[in-house]
Amino acid sequence: MLQILQPFGQKTGPISAIIGLGANLPSAAGGPEVTLHRALTLLKSKDLHVETVGRFYKTPCFPENSGPDYVNAVAILTARLSAADLLSRLHEIETELGRERVTRWGQRTLDLDLLAYGEVIRPDLTTFRHWMNLPLGEQMKEAPTQLILPHPRIQDRAFVLVPLAEIAPEWRHPVLGCTATQMRDELDPADVAQVKPL
């Protein structure tokens, strides 16, 4: 069970955070699977503890046929960092392992997404709902210029919900009120079937 809720700026924690990990290109550390293991090692510090990591999954690249399959995973952390500081740390690790932000949803050596930070909704419900309801075509062109919490696409992504439902089936989305298992079960079964354990 996740322990929640503290204000966005709180730094004294601890607070539970959920991150998504993904890679489909080799990094200096090695292939995608090795890269994810390395990223998890780099996360560990006095301010961050990796509580649980789900199995690694192979998922098709999106858009379809645009590159090699991804390796994806989800991890639960205990953080004594603000959400902003945690996001900065994730970006530092991406950079250390060779991530270059060139193309939105492009191939990458490492992607670390802050999916949820306790029950925090950031920056506000209206902004969150805007990004959650943005049509797919616009999602592929536009990116938020600020941190949105929870991640506005959790409920749409099998590569997030399949591993999340495995390690935290009762985790409840702070806006939608649905559990990870319920959201996974609402997805197209064909999309879920494409997320395969390594």
Please name the defining characteristics of this protein.
about 200 residues; alpha+beta; Alpha-Beta Plaits; 6 strands; globular
Note down, in words, how this protein is organized:
α5 runs antiparallel to α6. This protein is 30% helix and 19% strand. The protein is built from 7 helices and 6 strands, in the order βαβββαβαααααβ. Strands 1, 2, 3, 4, 5 and 6 form a 6-stranded antiparallel beta sheet that branches. It has one domain (15-197): Alpha-Beta Plaits (2-Layer Sandwich), CATH 3.30.70.560. The chain has helices at 32-43, 83-96, 125-132, 136-139, 158-167, 180-186, 189-193, and strands spanning 15-23, 48-53, 57-59, 70-79, 111-117, 196-197. The protein is an alpha+beta fold and 198 residues long. The radius of gyration is 16 Å and the shape is globular.
Low-confidence stretches: 1-11
The first-to-last residue Cα distance is 26 Å
Radius of gyration: 16 Å
Computed structural class: alpha+beta
Which CATH architecture is right? 2-Layer Sandwich
* Structural domains: how many: 1
Q: What is the CATH domain class?
A: Alpha Beta
Q: What share of residues is helical?
A: 25-40%
Number of contiguous helices: 7
Order of helices and strands: EHEEEHEHHHHHE
Please tally the β strands and state the result. 6
Q: Overall mean pLDDT score?
A: 89
